[in-house]
Specification:
mainly alpha, 5 helices, 2 strands
């Protein structure tokens, strides 16, 4: 995939040079735009709140399980084999429920993060396309580690994209 992109760019460069067309190229660091735009910061704050709320519940349930295990250990010598077995099965069931809860919480956080990211990327791509059309760019690349080895800062459109996104957010989209 990466090679196809590089070949596409090289082909575009040669075809533009061959026809004498002006070639205007820019790049955007989408990761930076995601992290530093107001929408990205808000999404991160929202995600942190969700994580904190889940962590409070996880900590509470974990302490309850620790207490149940400690109680079972203390009572173990006094309980009949049947009562001990029943309490151990109850504790095992609660441990499985707890593990499922933790997994579900992690999956929910991951899903929400993906939703936030996809929505923000969709908006950022619209803004990048608008900048490309308005300012007559031939090509706007994503600055990705290993793909763009060098690019002059003068063609970095990241701050412009972040500012336009933030303006759009202030205007209510």
């Amino acid at each position: 995939m990466k090679r196809v992109g590089i070949l596409l760019i090289i082909g575009l460069l040669f075809s533009s040079l061959a026809y004498g067309a002006d070639l205007k190229i820019g790049y955007v660091n989408l990761q930076k735009a995601l992290n530093e735009s107001e929408g990205g910061r808000k999404a991160k704050a929202d995600l942190d709140e969700i994580i904190k709320a889940k962590q409070v519940v996880i900590d509470k349930k974990g302490k309850e399980l620790e207490k149940l295990k400690a109680d079972l250990d203390k009572q173990s010598a006094l309980l009949s084999e049947d009562a001990k077995k029943a309490k151990q099965e109850d504790l095992d069931r609660k441990m499985r429920d707890f593990q499922r809860f933790v997994q579900d919480a992690q999956a929910e956080v991951k899903k929400r993060e993906s939703e936030f990211t996809n929505e923000l990327l969709k908006d950022l791509r619209k803004i990048i396309a608008a900048i490309g059309k308005e300012e007559h760019y031939t090509l706007i690349l994503e600055r990705v580690e290993g793909f763009v080895l060098y690019a002059d800062k003068s063609i970095d459109l990241t701050e412009k994209v972040i500012n336009k996104y933030n303006e759009k957010m202030k205007d209510g989209k």
